[in-house]
Write a structure and sequence with these properties.
The protein is mainly α. The chain has two helices and four strands. The strands form two sheets. Strands 1-4 form a two-stranded antiparallel ribbon. It has a two-stranded antiparallel sheet with strand order 2-3. It starts with 21 loop residues before the first helix and ends in a 15-residue tail after the last strand. The model has no long low-confidence stretch (mean pLDDT 91).
Length: 124
């Protein structure tokens, strides 16, 4: 097709932050995630093929997910107010769901979207 033109009208910004003391956070999350996997071996098959996808984390009660969210609040505020140009209103912009995925060789996630969300994030 020699008539093909590509117009990049809607770029997708990707913000990259490095969490302080990430080793401690990683260990806390790994312990939490592997415990979830022990309790729920099937997990959520929604978008994962060959790997394991947890159910949504408990992000209401104290624990590793809340500790992680608290460490990321400044990043969220920075993205919203300084990079996206949106008004940051504490407790209005919030994390509504969080989960883990364990993929091994030949495992993958199918293409999908997160409806009603303006931002999504991944932590590696």
């Amino acid at each position: 097709m020699s008539d093909l033109k590509i117009h990049n009208l809607f770029p997708v910004p990707i913000f990259h932050y490095k969490l302080k003391n990430y080793e401690e956070t990683n260990q806390e999350l790994l312990t939490y995630i592997y415990e979830l996997q022990k309790k729920d071996k099937l997990g959520n098959p929604h978008s994962n093929k060959g790997g394991w996808h947890s159910q949504n984390f408990d992000i209401v009660n104290e624990g590793p997910p809340i500790n992680f969210i608290n460490k990321c609040k400044d990043f969220l505020k920075d993205v919203i107010s300084n990079n996206m140009g949106w008004k940051y209103v504490p407790n209005k912009q919030r994390i509504v769901a969080m989960w883990a995925i364990i993929n091994k060789k030949n495992s993958f996630n199918v293409s999908h979207y997160h409806q009603n969300c303006y931002l999504s994030a991944a932590y590696y």
